[in-house]
């Protein structure tokens, strides 16, 4: 059942190109238009939404953080992302024109379920992004956009995360389409790139051997830090979460711009710091800023592990280890930059003798609040 892999997690990491392609299947027309008729929310509701609130937990929350960048940039609808466990306890402002997106792989997470019930009681419409057919969260939502990752067995979420991102991108683009947002060249390029992103994920998977070797060499470390900016920031959080749950190491993700506001004090000789570098093409200001962050931490002794797109030469002098990912439109980069972090955490956990598929103290679906 593990299809020749030692762990379900390895199998599920390898299945990502297919999971991504399956989630896209039939949803982008030949003319580049999005087809999400299966989402039963009437277009009128989508047209009138004046606020989007995303609720989720753990890895699904990180997908939500990335979705916010895409939704706001492509649709100009204000979007908040909140941990489902915090949501209803702070008396959030919700109304008829609020669209709530609940993201959940299992569809059974109690925190997310309670948050969505609260949202519906307040009159908001809820759309679930879910991987499990007929589970509770989609059943209790007004509409559902299924991810097609297939069953995810390993406790640590991998392929479900990538497909949650794909579903959120599709949804954001669809919202733009329904609302008549002017589709410039940027959006057309994004749709084209999204349609073939599974191949790019495959290319990343083909180059993971050095990442595994690097992970093994860090097995006796206590701490790994992760830095990112823009959509690379949630990717950094996700890389840190994977390392915590699988390798049982102290791992923290930071927005690179926050470094100078505190975390830089943590940098010491030989501390591994993973940096997710934004594309030098899109928001090049951010790229330049993060390159100076890498210089700063390296000057203080950090061992820099840099994830940067192919052709980005500016990072080369400051990278102790360089992990290349294919160039993609900025907002789509998490689909490729998360993959090395999954492989990294999985290999480090194995090197430390941990049970990868069943990490201690964790369950695949968390049905208590
Ligand atoms: C992390 C992980 C958890 C889940 C979280 C939400 O690898 O698996 O953080 O992402 O418990 O679960 P779902 O998506 O089933 O609601």
From TrEMBL:
Its EC number is 2.6.1.16. The keyword rRNA-binding does not apply. Its main location: cytoplasm. It is found in: Cytoplasm. It catalyses: D-fructose 6-phosphate + L-glutamine = D-glucosamine 6-phosphate + L-glutamate. The keyword Repeat applies. One of its GO terms (molecular function) is glutamine-fructose-6-phosphate transaminase (isomerizing) activity. The active site is at residue 364. Keywords: Aminotransferase, Cytoplasm, Glutamine amidotransferase, Repeat, Transferase. It is an enzyme of class 2 (transferase). Catalyzes the first step in hexosamine metabolism, converting fructose-6P into glucosamine-6P using glutamine as a nitrogen source. This is Glutamine--fructose-6-phosphate aminotransferase [isomerizing]. The lineage of its organism: Bacteria, Bacillati, Actinomycetota, Actinomycetes, Kitasatosporales. The gene is glmS. The chain holds residues 247 to 615 of 615 of the full protein.
């Amino acid at each position: 059942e593990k299809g020749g892999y030692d762990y379900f997690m390895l199998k599920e990491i390898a299945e990502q190109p297919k999971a991504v392609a399956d989630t896209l299947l039939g949803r982008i027309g030949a003319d580049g238009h999005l087809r999400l008729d299966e989402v039963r929310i009437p277009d009128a509701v989508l047209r009138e939404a004046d606020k989007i609130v995303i609720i989720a937990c753990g890895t699904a929350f990180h997908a939500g953080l990335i979705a916010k960048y895409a939704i706001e940039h492509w649709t100009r609808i204000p979007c908040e992302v909140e941990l489902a466990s915090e949501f209803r306890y702070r008396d959030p402002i919700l109304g008829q024109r609020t669209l709530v997106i609940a993201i959940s792989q299992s569809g059974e997470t109690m925190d997310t379920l309670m948050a969505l019930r609260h949202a519906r009681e307040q009159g908001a419409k809820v759309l679930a992004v879910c991987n499990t057919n007929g589970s509770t969260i989609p059943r209790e939502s007004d509409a559902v956009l299924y991810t097609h990752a297939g069953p995810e067995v390993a406790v640590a979420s991998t392929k479900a995360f990538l497909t949650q991102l794909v579903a959120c991108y599709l949804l954001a683009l669809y919202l733009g389409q329904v609302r008549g947002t002017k589709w410039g060249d940027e959006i057309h390029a994004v749709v084209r790139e999204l349609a073939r992103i599974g191949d790019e994920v495959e290319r990343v998977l083909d180059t993971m051997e050095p990442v595994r070797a690097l992970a093994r060499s860090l097995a006796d470390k206590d701490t790994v830090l992760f830095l990112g900016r823009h959509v690379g920031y949630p990717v950094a959080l996700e890389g840190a979460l994977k390392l915590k749950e699988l390798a049982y190491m102290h791992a923290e993700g930071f927005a690179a711009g926050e470094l100078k506001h505190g975390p830089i004090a943590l940098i010491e000789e030989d501390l591994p710091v993973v940096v997710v570098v934004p594309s030098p093409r899109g928001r090049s200001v951010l790229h330049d800023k993060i390159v100076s962050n890498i210089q700063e931490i390296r000057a203080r002794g950090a061992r820099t592990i840099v994830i940067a797109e192919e052709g980005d030469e500016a990072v080369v002098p400051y990278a102790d280890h360089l992990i290349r990912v294919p160039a993609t439109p900025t907002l789509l980069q998490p689909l490729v930059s998360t993959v090395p972090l999954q492989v990294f955490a999985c290999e480090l956990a194995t090197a430390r003798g941990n049970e990868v598929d069943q990490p201690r103290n964790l369950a695949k679906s968390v049905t208590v609040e």
